[in-house]
Design brief:
By secondary structure, the protein is an alpha+beta fold. The chain has four domains: 16-90 and 196-221; 98-188; 225-277 and 307-359 and 379-415, no CATH class; 433-522, no CATH class. Helix content is 21%, strand content 46%. The chain contains three helices and 30 strands. Strands 19, 20, 23, 24, 25, 26, 27, 28, 29 and 30 form a ten-stranded mixed sheet that branches. Strands 2, 3, 5, 8, 11, 14, 15, 16 and 17 form a nine-stranded mixed sheet that branches. Strands 18-10-9-21-22 form a five-stranded mixed sheet, with no helix packed on it. It is flat, with a radius of gyration of 40 Å. The termini are far apart.
Length: 530
């Protein structure tokens, strides 16, 4: 009986020991898919699992991990029982060898500064004694002139020594204070890091015999994002524009990404992914406000899918580490071809995604009413097939940096317009036409006539079209009448009042444009015209 009880106790003890045994598995980040406001991390790790029931701990994960997003894959001859993400406090800073070593260095520096401070105090006291003796000694009748001279020589020499030593000590103290400041910064960073909790994933398993296991852990983490960044370059007005599609990637997740495969996605998995569904809108008497939310709900059976992928092959001879583009049903992914290093410091790192040659039409644009300079513009068409997102564009023309613009893809238009800056080779002048400038009064009406002359001269060899826009006012009431009397070669938009000239001019050519308009309004009305 006692023997059976002993065997039972041994079996229970073995079971408890097996259940309490935990194997720490070291994992490495191998891939990150960065969304516009978050990222999906993929880690891998290996472990040798003993037979029986046990647990492995995948630790050192980001404190910003979304526990509901954790997914685990594994290979090996064992069965996974549970997968449990949990928060874990970091060990106190006093348990860290790195922290202890830095504190020892700080103490050595603090002691050195204290000793140097004592030396400075002693030198200060010695100088005070010398200065007191300087006034006392010459006043003694028994002190000879020769002794006074010797004393003065001694004081002069000693004061130079004291003040030189003081400078040397102060210089050394400044150096040590800088070192102390750096150490305090490192110590504060460690304290801040240790105040943050860690996330770990505990995996309970059962294995009939010892086995080798491989784990793949994926999870969603906040603190990461990317935004598009473009370089648009124009080398010649007869060539397409070159658009470098880049991404500014930043992350502050608490995990450094070293030598990882990076994918950039336009999706946002944290958004509501279920389509709305109309429900009954109940209207009751004395209802204080319309219950809008009662009119719809989210249908859990209508889920977003992204399983069908359309791939577009990229040029193999590209001279940069670009990305392979996959257009899914609901988002676009850019898989960067080379491994990347992105530390967890919140700084933006530019990753080149692709390089495109876009067909473009060039033209000069002038609005001389506001600015008599001609601005070269590039009109890019057929841009929708390149998976562009809104973002900032750096503009380069003929190798020189021009400035910045913004690419807006929200407007439903098939043309993107970029300004490439002023061109001093196009000379524009706008001046009043004195022969058509008057104000007269007829009955109860005031009639005002205004005329403008626009002179254009080009000193450019390229016959790039020039678009000039001006305007006449548009009336908002029947009491004001606006009439366009003349506009040489211009088209008028009656809704906006815009006048538009489209010109093609050769080198050295000059043209004179102009327009006249009349405004009639009541005599007792005040209008401010040009």
């Amino acid at each position: 009986m006692k023997q059976q009880l002993s065997l039972l106790l041994l079996s229970i003890l073995a079971l408890i020991t097996s259940l309490s045994a935990q194997t720490d598995v070291s994992t490495t980040i191998v891939e990150a898919t960065v969304y516009l406001q978050s990222a999906q991390i993929t880690r891998t790790g290996k472990a040798n699992l003993p037979a029986g029931r046990g647990a492995v701990v995948l630790s050192g994960l980001s404190p910003l991990l979304d526990q509901g997003s954790v997914r685990l894959g594994a290979t090996g001859n064992f069965m996974i029982l549970t997968v449990t993400p949990q928060q874990k406090n970091r060990p106190p800073v006093t348990d860290l060898p790195e922290y202890t070593q830095l504190m020892d260095q700080r103490q050595v520096l603090a002691d050195a500064l204290a000793r140097e401070k004592i030396k400075l105090d002693v030198l200060d006291e010695e100088e005070k004694v010398l200065m007191v003796n300087k006034t006392i000694a010459p006043a003694q009748a028994w002190v000879s002139a020769e002794e006074v001279q010797k004393m003065a020589q001694f004081m002069r020499t000693r004061l130079v020594e004291i003040r030189t030593q003081r400078l040397d000590i102060a210089d050394g103290m400044r150096t040590n204070q800088e070192k102390l400041k750096d150490l305090d910064q490192q110590l504060n960073e460690i304290r801040q890091r240790q105040r943050e909790s860690l996330t770990e994933v505990v995996v309970q398993y059962q294995a009939e015999r010892a086995t080798a296991a491989e784990f793949q852990l994926t999870y969603l983490v906040n603190g990461s994002s990317w935004i598009p960044s473009y370089d648009l370059r124009v080398s010649d007005l007869t060539q397409p524009v070159d658009l470098s599609y880049g991404a500014l990637v930043s992350q502050n997740t608490g995990e450094d990404w070293k030598n990882i495969m990076l994918t950039l996605s336009t999706g946002n998995p944290q958004q509501q992914q279920n389509a709305p569904r109309i429900t009954t809108w109940w209207l009751s008497p004395n209802q204080p406000f319309a219950r809008v939310q009662a009119g719809y709900a989210y249908d859990n059976e209508l889920m977003q899918t992204s399983n069908v992928v359309i791939s577009r092959e990229e040029a193999d001879d590209a001279g940069f580490a670009g990305a392979d583009v996959a257009v899914n049903l609901t988002n676009t992914e850019f898989r960067v071809r080379l491994a990347q290093d992105i530390p967890s410091n919140g700084q933006q790192f530019r990753v080149l995604v692709d390089d495109y040659e876009l067909p473009a039409d060039y033209q000069y644009y002038v609005a001389p009413k506001f600015d008599c300079h001609a601005y070269l513009t590039a009109r890019v068409t057929d841009w929708q097939k390149y998976s562009l997102l809104p973002g900032e564009v750096s503009l380069f023309f003929d190798g020189a940096y021009v400035g910045k613009s913004n690419l807006s893809t929200y407007a439903a238009t098939d043309t993107l317009v970029f300004s490439l800056g002023r061109d001093e080779g196009i000379i524009i002048e706008r001046e009043r036409e004195d022969n058509f400038r008057s104000r007269s009064f007829l009955g109860g009406k005031t009639e005002q006539r205004i005329g403008w002359i626009i002179k254009v001269q080009t000193n450019r060899r390229n016959e790039v079209p020039i678009v000039i826009e001006d305007q006449i006012p548009v009336s908002t009431t029947d009491q004001i009448e606006v009439s366009l009397e003349a506009a040489k070669g211009a088209t008028l938009d009656p809704v906006t009042g815009k006048l538009r000239w489209e010109l093609k001019m050769k080198l050295g050519e000059q043209r004179e444009l102009g327009f006249r308009y009349t405004v009639k309004y009541p005599k007792n009305m005040t209008l401010f015209l040009e």
